[in-house]
Amino acid sequence: MAVNNPSGLLEACVVVGPSSESLKELCQAHLQGKEIKHRSLEAEVLQVHAPPFVSKESDPDGPGHAPAFSRVQRRRSFLKKKRERPAVSSNSGTKTNDSTISRADDLTVPKDIDLIALPQLCFPDGLTVAPESQEDSYHFLVFTDVFGNQTHGVVVQYYKSLQFSLEGVTYQNGHRSSKPPRLYTAYGICVISKYPYYNALRDCLSSFLVQLKTCRMDDFEEKVKEFSAKLALVPIPPPGQLQVVFSLKPLQIVLPPREDMDRPAVDLDLHLPFLCFRPEQILQVICSILTEQRVVFLCTDWARLTLVAECFMFFIHPLCWQHPFVPILSRQMLDFLMAPTAYLMGCHTHHFEEVAAETEDLVLIDIDSGTVTSSCDAELPDMPLIATECFKGRVEGLQLNYDLEVCWRGSSTDMSELRAHRRQWQCKLNSQILSITLELIVNIFRDVHDHLNYEHRVFNSEEFLKSQETADQAFYKKVLETHIFHSFLRERLSRKMDAFARMEINTRSEAYRLRTMSDSSRKPVMQDITRKYMGPENRLNKRLGMSLPNLAEDHSLTRPLRQLSLMKSPLIDKGATLSPGFKLPSKSVKTFKLPEFPPPLAFHYVQKYYCDLINLLSEFIATVNPQDSSLLARYYYLRGLVSYVAGKRLEALGDFQNLYRTDMDIFPTELMRAVVDSLQESERSVVDRRPDLKRLISRVKKSSEQARLKDSGSVKKFELPRTHMLQEDFVRRVQESGIVKDQGTISRLFDALTVGQQKQVDPEVFRDFYTIWKETEAEAQDVDLPASVLERLDSDERVFKISSSVKTSHGVGKIAMTDRRLFLLTEGRPGYVEVARFRDLEEVKISSAPFLLLRIPSLKIKTSRRRETFEANLKFECDLWHLMIKEMWAGRKMADEHKDPQYVQQALTNALLMDAVVGCLQSQKAIFAASKLAYFDRMKREGPMMVPKTTSETLKHKINPCLNLPTPQAVDILLYTPGELGAAGSDGSDPKLWCALSGGKVVVFDAASWSMQQNSIQVGTSRLNCMLGVDQQQLWIGSEDSVIYIINPHSMACNKQLTEHRAEVTGLALEDRPDKYSPLAAYSCSVEGTVIMWEVATLQVRRHFRLSCDGLQSLQIFGGRLWCCALDCVMEVRRNGTLHRKVALPDHLRGPPSFYSGFVVFHEREQLWTGCSNAGELCVWHLSDPKRPFQRIQLPDCASVVCMIKVKNQIWVGCHGYSGGKAHGKIYVVDTEHHKVEKELVAHSDSVQTLSSAEDRYVLSGAAGQDGKIAIWKVE
Q: I want to staple 545 with a disulfide (CB 3.0 to 4.6 A). Which of 338, 509, 1072, 1241 is the partner?
């Protein structure tokens, strides 16, 4: 994620005080004997200090280098002429004039800071003369520019005495006047920063005031400038686990890091709103923000206004307020409240009546009284009940009182220790509050992703509203029209993996995960239908899934699939005991203490300070545990930042190169670009001679351009078409509607809707079709089944279609269809009669039944479980039900034969589409048109559906990684990882199946239930060739684009890259450690023959060499040596790169069509097994005689060997072949002792691309693009 150019803690420091005109008037009034106590004074800017504070007089580097953390772009904005000022002295009685406290003639300030309103904001109550000194007071400011970028300020008001000179005419009534009164007026110092470090900046000002109050007035300006220059030397910590600490005596100042790149640092007390409001009022405030009301905070304490308002900005994360945000309005700024747009502003409580009377449509939030009121035109809707009840329950568990936390502790004699303990308590509480508020946002918007079409960037708002509870719809109607929600949608459609997405995934119930694997995920299951007629306490789980505690999940849904689990023991459903999904960081925050500040206004001292800082960071980098790559990345970030500011641009590039390899999540793209742009000619020539730096610069530019293109996507609302649609447009419209995504199914639907006419769909026909589909869906959701019927159905079963009332052989009633059975809902006395399970059907035919003088069409259904035939007089519905039942029958038969439940879901979709087609066409051709959708029934009639017995016995299950994609994609790689990968710091982790699809997509399955955990992780845009689980914390993926991508299994994000290869990465292998103290090493190879040895802990290259071969395809490690497979040979290579032995292609396979495609080494038997493309055989070699194979094993009906792995004492071989002119994929299981094929498994309808072993108990196979599925096979 990009960040701005380097900026230190300080953006500017501004001194504000009484203007010279006000002091002159005050002096005149005193001389005239007038009362001057409490007189108002005009405030103005007296000083502005902004970096850079020092510069080299003759800087050879030119203007590109500013020796301070600063934004170099500046503007002149404060030009005034000097005016005479009355003589004013400090407490010591020394006289002052414009040379003491003075404003500059020409003040240069950063371009984002406007000084015009700053005096009013520093003194929002006005500046007055006080008869006695007042206590120092602090308040906080937020400045927002037209682009929404925020700058933050902390203001301290401190009082200094005014002592008037008695020179001149100072007599009254002929007598010299008495001693003039001792009066005080306030001065304000405002420290402005790009970062919301409210507590830290307040601490800085507190420390500075200790020095300022004791200094002479002559030194005032210099002291402020030195203070500002010191803050400008402080670097901002990168996101993550490293905080920066520096000393401003007498205090130690802590800059906490951001949690991640998507949110600012939390440096305020987030529990303040909970001390001011009850949970109900907090929810009202959040509601007013989410619905973009005109919100006004009121308080008698200016400091609380900003802090409380900022807390609510954190509470709505990741949603971001898009409108004016001015938490403090002075009395002169109240006209801002007349703005016609939504806003969030704050003012003093004594303006309450004036604001309420003059302005309409306001939500008024009184912080002092803890109340939220709104005008009649700004009524707040109720937030979703389930989410709010969960929020209230969580809040009750918060410990908000620090005194209760420390009542058992003794009195501390160390102020630093006391502050550190208080900070630690606050940090923990802040994390808990962020967890609770994030959970609230997740529970409110959890269902959004069910109504998104990612390919076309469409959100179906109407269907989303219909899916919500009736009482909640008023809230969602308002939210859906807001800018804040629109930006949120853009991030969801971009599949942003932020805190919201991680919590939403982690808190899904197991039942919900499994429902998302079917195309009918929005249909209610029997559990949900049952809850519909129960109390709200039981309905909570429908929306929140695993989010609420102590809600037991029904295990019946997961039980059939969990029997196929790779776990050795049954799993406990996580829905029963889940804590909030947003967890505290597993690693403690480390501290980096800056060196003592130098004299900050001398160039050579500042340069030495930077050198000391770089050396200190280098020491930390040298001593940090190499396995702690996250902390190492933070040190690289800081050292690169400081090196750039110090003018050491080449060193900065080197650190950013290490950072790019170590943690891309915090890579400062914009800063990197600034470094490159500032390079001098001599430095550019050095970069040009270093290919690694040139490659880094090129990749950063490319990724930056891709990020801009990705971020520019808009959000479309689904709308029904208004013009005729050709097939391409029709496919897009159907996908946008969310009805179905599969292009093959949509093409058949297009044929059905255009039967007997031109190949284009009328918009009215599409409207009728869409309406009928949605009405059928709504009817199924609203079905009111008696309790006696619900007891007969499975808990995860869904009702999809109900007929009209008909006469049957079992009485009058309605026929209901689920995805598993047909049953009759009898009328009169409601009851349940099972008609048939689809897998038990034997015959379905249309007949006729006599009725008076007529014969009425009827449907006869015969099953294997009962002798009598069920007959229903379905009349005009008979043909449609005949089609639907036969399609469901064929789909169930396919699912049972192929162990693939997706066939049932596809058949169900086809049946429901038939129903909608017949309903919208309303003509004689409607049934014929609907028959175009009978895909599985046609397959059943055209050819046998039987699966060979051996295949059926070995095949356990099939899953579809392309379910959420419009077309099947090739499964390029599969990797099973046991539960330990990614489990560090947690109670455990389920095993996972990682699946690489075309175009750099990685899909993740929970291998305990085969439910999809992660729809898609984008890893580049090229084909992925190999995967490797490394060190339990990393997943390495080699890509066609020459990059090794590293995925963090915790965050499911790709945050590291290895870019040393120059060509397509084709193989990865992990070396066995001789002992636990030896560094872990991994090897990678690329197609041109390069092999690189990596130290896993540091991701540094330890060795590399080049092999002479034709197209290096893969590598493995056996017996401490590398085995490398190229197109023309298999090589055994020593670790130093020297060749030990080489196995060339056998004589009978030499030639352009054939090359090695895979190999397996039996080291204990001294055997090598090889397979070749365009050859249906395996060759077995003795390692002692690599000239010719001693055994050739023929693979029947195999045209080409694609992949092979060793499992126990078997070789599993994935092949490509043809049968009946069609491509198919077969797996051959070969006995290694007898050298013969034990099993031939008919695996897929396209070639087998990849094989992976799961603990030698299961083998997973992935198919090419025509099939795109994963099969799970039992190993015997």
A: 509
Out of 711, 732, 757, a domain closes at: 711
681's CB contacts (< 8 A; 6+ apart) are: none
Mean local confidence (pLDDT), 1171-1193: 89
Q: What is the CATH number of the domain that holds 236?
A: 3.30.450.200
Tell whether 67 is covered by a domain. no
**What are the backbone angles phi and psi of residue 1072, rounded to the nearest 5°?**
-70, 135
Report the number of distinct structural domains present in the chain: 4
Q: Crossing angle for the helix pair 415-445 and 385-396, nearest 10 degrees?
A: 160
| Shared-domain flag, residues 47 and 122 | yes
Q: What pLDDT score does 115 carry?
A: 80
One-letter identity of residue 133: S
- Measured distance CA(493)–CA(453) in Å, rounded: 8
Residues 6+ apart with CB under 8 A from 622: none
- In whole angstroms, give the CA distance from residue 455 to residue 1039: 23
767 and 844 share a domain? yes
Q: Nearest CA to 1174 among 1192, 1153, 1157, 1156?
A: 1153
Other CB atoms closer than 10 Å to residue 454's CB: what's the count? Answer: 16
- In order of 153, 154, 324, 1019, the CA distances from 143 in angstroms are 8, 11, 10, 38
φ, ψ of residue 1114 to 5 degrees: the values are -165, 170
Give residue 608's Cα distance to chain centre.
41
Q: Among 905, 922, 942, where does a domain finish?
A: 942
Mean pLDDT for the stretch of residues 1142-1150: 86
- State which H helix or E strand residue 1026 sits in: strand 1024-1030
Q: Amino acid letter at 1135?
A: R
Co-location of 338 and 252 in the same domain: no
Three-class SS state of 346 = strand
Q: Which residues fall within 8 angstroms of residue 1074, CB to CB, at 6 or more apart? A: none
DSSP states along 1123-1166: EEEESSEEEEE-TTS-EEEEEEPPGGG-STT--EEEEEEEGGGT
CATH of the domain at 332: 3.40.50.11500
Query: Of how many residues is the chain composed?
Result: 1276
Assign 3-state DSSP to the chain and report helix, strand, coil percentages, each to 5.
35, 30, 40
Backbone angles phi and psi of 174, in degrees to 5? 80, 0
- C-alpha 182/C-alpha 176 separation (Å) is 17
Asked if the structure places residue 707 within a domain, the reply is yes
Q: What is the mean pLDDT of residues 1109-1126?
A: 92
Cα four-point dihedral sign 138, 188, 117, 299: positive
879: containing domain = 743-942
- Number of neighbouring beta carbons within 10 Å of residue 88: 24
208: left (phi over 0), alpha (psi -120 to 50) or beta: alpha
Q: Are 56 and 670 in contact (CB under 8 A)?
A: no
Question: Cα–Cα distance between 24 and 20 in angstroms, integer?
Answer: 6
Question: In 3D, which of 474, 281, 283 has the Cα closest to residue 381?
Answer: 474
Q: How many C-alpha atoms does 993 have within 13 Å on its Cβ side?
A: 34
pLDDT tens digit sequence for 817-853 = 999 999 999 987 778 999 999 999 999 999 876 665 5
| Residue 821's CATH number | 2.30.29.30
Judge residue 784's burial from the number of C-beta atoms within 10 Å of its C-beta, 0-12 exposed, 13-18 middle, 19 or more buried.
exposed
List pLDDT tens digits, range 1072-1110: 877 777 888 999 999 999 999 998 888 889 999 999 998
Write the single-letter amino acid at 849. Answer: A
Closest CA to 586 of 980, 263, 1077, 1051: 1051
Spatial distance between the Cα atoms of 106 and 112, rounded to a whole number of angstroms = 17
Q: Which residue has tokens 């396995």?
A: 627
Distances (CA, A) of 1054 to 634, 662, 1002, 1093, 1157: 17, 11, 11, 21, 29
Nearest to 892 by CA among 817, 951, 966: 817
Q: How crowded is the C-beta side of 384, counted as CA atoms within 13 Å? A: 26
